[in-house]
Amino acid sequence: MMLPYDMPPYRPPSEAYSVLIRATRGCPWNRCTFCGMYKDERFEIKPVESVKKDIDAARAFYGPNVKRVFIGDSNSLVMKPEDLAEVLRYLYEQFHAIERVTSYARAKTIRRRKLEDLKTLREAGLTRLHVGLETGDRELLAFIKKGATPEQMIEGGRKALEAGCELSLYVLLGIGGEDRSTQHALHTAEVLNAIDPHFIRVRTLVPYPGTPIFDQINEGIFTPASPKTLLKETLTLVENLNVRSEFLSDHISNLVDLNGKLPGDKPKMVAAMREIIAEIEEKPELLETYFKPRDYRCL
Ligand code: SF4
User: Ligand 1 test: best mutation among 10, 27, 103, 211, most atoms within 8 Å of CB?
Assistant: First the structure.
């Protein structure tokens, strides 16, 4: 049986092989200036019984041996904790082999939740939260209307960790544009250092038509970062990280694939970035190598 689902379904690349179950629909915030997701969807929290029916349908379709589930849409933690816990318990009843259940969440929502509620969700089987940090820079967080300060990002991140969840934080390279790249990298590293999440995942800004940041580019308010600036920004970010996180460039928008476990792989990662930057400084025409694949990646 095919279930109605808004297309495309949004989920992290690391959840590509997870069964997608929606507890909510759309984004309750929906104001970030760079974001083109969920624009045609009116936000709703789905009734628990309706989510359970979707779980029944997923079991009928995929069988009982599902190992990974991603709960959509953009911030499942807005659901009442007792309702989300009921959904999680039902999931584990239907799929006995589950190893991982993850969800997107906003740092500000995590921060608002009681620690005991977050612990209950963890005990009910919520193993990992994917949270969009984007930047740790106060000015840029306000500029992109992320709706959270660096302090709130830190508080939300630490609370998720204290509850026992794995934490995956997303950084948006290029969101400082050409002018505020360095402050973006330095302040993002500061916030990441204060949280020390399990995963740091970088993406690169791709301004989509219809988003406010796309209009700001056309109006001359925002100058996108050049590839060279993006490479230097990545280097500055990694150089200033003092964490034990897994650093991943697991997104098609990135100029380079830079991955490693920090702090051990940091020297290797810094050396790789320095080498690339030195190479393009010597032969600027090599920038094309980085430009072209990205053009294809943005299709
Ligand atoms: S980035 Fe996330 S929180 Fe911001 S509008 Fe998009 S879906 Fe909502």
Answer: 27
In angstroms, what is the span from residue 290 Cα to ligand 1's centroid? Answer: 27
Q: What CATH code is carried by the domain that includes residue 133?
A: 3.20.20.70
How many domains is the chain built from?
Answer: 1
Q: What's the 27 CA to ligand 1 centre distance in angstroms?
A: 6
Whether 8 is in a domain gets the answer no
**Do the domain assignments include residue 275?**
yes
Query: What does the pLDDT profile of the chain (299 residues) look like in tens digits?
Result: 445 667 778 899 999 999 999 999 999 999 999 999 998 889 999 999 999 999 999 999 999 999 999 999 999 999 999 999 999 999 999 999 999 999 999 999 999 999 999 999 999 999 999 999 999 999 999 999 999 999 999 999 999 999 999 999 999 999 999 999 999 999 999 999 999 999 999 999 999 999 999 999 999 999 999 999 999 999 999 999 999 999 999 998 999 999 999 999 999 999 999 999 999 999 988 877 766 555 555 43
Whether 2 maps to a domain, the answer reads no
CA–CA separation, 201 vs 131, rounded Å?
10
Q: Which two tokens stand for residue 203?
A: 């993406």
Q: Give the residues surrounding ligand 1 with Cβ less than 6 Å away.
A: 27, 29-32, 35, 37-38, 74, 106, 132
Q: Are strands 24-25 and 44-45 parallel, antiparallel or unpaired?
A: antiparallel
Range of the domain at 275: 13-297
| pTM (whole model) above 0.85 | yes
Compute the Cα dihedral for 25, 52, 69, 297 and give only its sign: negative
Q: Is residue 210 part of a domain?
A: yes
In this structure, the number of other CB atoms found within 10 A of the CB of residue 168 comes to 23
